[in-house]
Structure to design on (306 residues):
């Protein structure tokens, strides 16, 4: 077993790369590279890309994780009889390709050449009831799309939750933050995070949901801050994009969230201000009501996850 360090990217297919790029620019991405049949988009963090679209029939075509080193890829290769290949994606490096129990392609990558970080434009100073650091200057939120930083997590619908959970934990060292029961003694899914020991990581990186039918649920991208999320919301609404759910604050993970649909119906989330856990945080068992509830904001629509 190795321990992946983070989720790297999600992959989709779409029949029109121009339309997908237009949406993703409105959503807050920056083009990393465009080829005849593939579009790579990145955020402001110094990572090669976080969203890939390949020309084809609309659909979800997999996800990728970062390994700590090429040596970890070689361990995976030896354990599972899979080749370590050279990656031709932006950043290069090496890659091992899996297929999970639901038929989803799952890549593990390492050794990439990393680009420079991009400037974050909305670095705002806020006053609140406890502290007023902004003095003598007004706060002004510049209009324009949100600034996506990086991919934070992916949620997948799966045939069998326990089978999928075991598969990802065995190969990639993921651990449980919150396990969800649909009824007492009836688990339906779990928020899984990377295991980085004492280093704090996102509350979840992958969430397999045992719906019985494999499918894409949503992918979530961190943005700069709350004002950045709200500014981007105005851009997407003004462009007539399909809104799904938000703005609100989750209970599990605590993120402020806002969900949208891309032109082919894939749900993508803006989020900010999420929880960070390390190995001192034990796994938690909780209910479907906490999963679908929120601390403030509108209730989840019936279309979520469909």
């Amino acid at each position: 077993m190795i321990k992946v360090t983070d989720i790297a990217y999600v992959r989709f297919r779409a029949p029109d790369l121009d339309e997908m790029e237009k949406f993703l620019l409105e959503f807050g991405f920056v083009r990393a590279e465009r080829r005849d049949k593939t579009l790579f988009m990145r955020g402001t963090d110094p990572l090669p890309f976080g969203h890939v679209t390949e020309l084809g029939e609309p659909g979800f075509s997999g996800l990728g994780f970062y390994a700590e080193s090429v040596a970890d890829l070689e361990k995976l290769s030896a354990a599972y009889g899979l080749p370590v290949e050279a990656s031709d994606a932006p950043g290069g490096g090496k890659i091992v390709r899996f297929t999970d129990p639901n038929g989803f392609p799952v890549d593990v990558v390492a050794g990439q050449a990393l680009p420079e970080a991009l400037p974050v434009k909305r670095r705002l100073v806020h006053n609140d009831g406890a502290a007023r650091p902004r003095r003598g200057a007004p706060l002004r939120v510049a209009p324009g799309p949100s600034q996506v930083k990086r991919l934070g997590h992916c949620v997948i619908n799966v045939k069998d939750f326990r089978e999928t959970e075991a598969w990802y934990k065995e190969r990639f060292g993921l651990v449980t933050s919150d396990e969800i029961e649909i009824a007492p003694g009836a688990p339906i899914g779990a928020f899984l995070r990377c295991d980085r020991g004492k280093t704090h990581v996102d509350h979840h990186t992958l969430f397999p949901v045992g719906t019985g039918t494999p499918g894409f649920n949503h992918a979530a991208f961190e943005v700069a801050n709350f004002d950045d999320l709200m500014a981007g919301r105005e851009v997407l609404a003004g462009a007539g994009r399909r809104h799904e759910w938000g703005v609100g604050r989750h209970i599990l993970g605590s993120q402020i969230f806002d969900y949208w649909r891309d032109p082919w119906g894939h749900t993508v989330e803006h989020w900010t201000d999420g929880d960070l856990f390390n190995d001192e945080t034990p796994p938690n068992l909780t209910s479907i009501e906490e999963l679908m509830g929120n601390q403030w904001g509108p209730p989840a629509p019936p279309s979520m996850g469909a």
